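subagent[fold] <- orchestrator: predict structure for attached chain, return tokens only, no commentary.
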Amino acid sequence: MTVIKKLSNSRQEELEWQCRVDLAAAFQLTYQFGWNRGIGNHYSLMVPNSDDTFFVNARGLLFSEITASNLIRCDFKGNVLEGKGEIRDVTYNIHVPIHRDHPSAKAVLHVHPPNITAISLLENGRVALAHHNNLIFNDRIAYDDEMTGPALDLDEGDRIARGLGDKTIMVMANHGVTVVGPTVHDSFSELSICEHTCGDQLRAMWTGLKLREQPAHLKWDHKGAFGDRIDAKLSFDAQVRQLERDVGTAYKT
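subagent[fold] -> orchestrator:
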């Protein structure tokens, strides 16, 4: 007979606090990199050992203001179970359907970084197979060409969740990007490499010359966690160390 041991309260609290710290670090890094827009954009992370509760940024906070302790805990009905503030309707409408329909998407990052967003504004905007990095993640991208405005209801969120399919990156036409993964490390690292690579593509396009695309057979066709093939956690941890050297550790409070 298999005996399932319940985590002690102290161990559960430790796991939850580490999730809060990781998510807060992602917010702070995003602010440092200039990827978000004002009080808009939103990141969420499922609470460990829960199927229907998640941590998310409260409505009205700048990413630079977010710390581990001021993240709010919500359930799939939109109730705030812990913390001060409320969840934005758009946040709820996007994140809940993705978390609900894609159990492996523990971390959901929705943001408007300049380079990926610029690609999303182009007619038939696509991430080219031009950079070596594209071999890693191009097969992991879904394109939401029907995206025409904010997610004002759950029907729109359901549509987005369906469109994501088995991909981890969704380039949302005229909008921005959503990146998902089993951890903050996975999703943030994939967001980072995609954003920088799109920047390289745009700079190459500005020359007016034709992009030199690579043979399709060189693509990795990797569908698992980003960190299974890429040093996602090492990369994230290195960025966090730089963050702490630059601005300190207040985000951990």
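orchestrator: received. Logging for downstream: Residues 1-5 have pLDDT under 50 and may be disordered. The CA atoms of residues 189 and 232 lie 5 Å apart.
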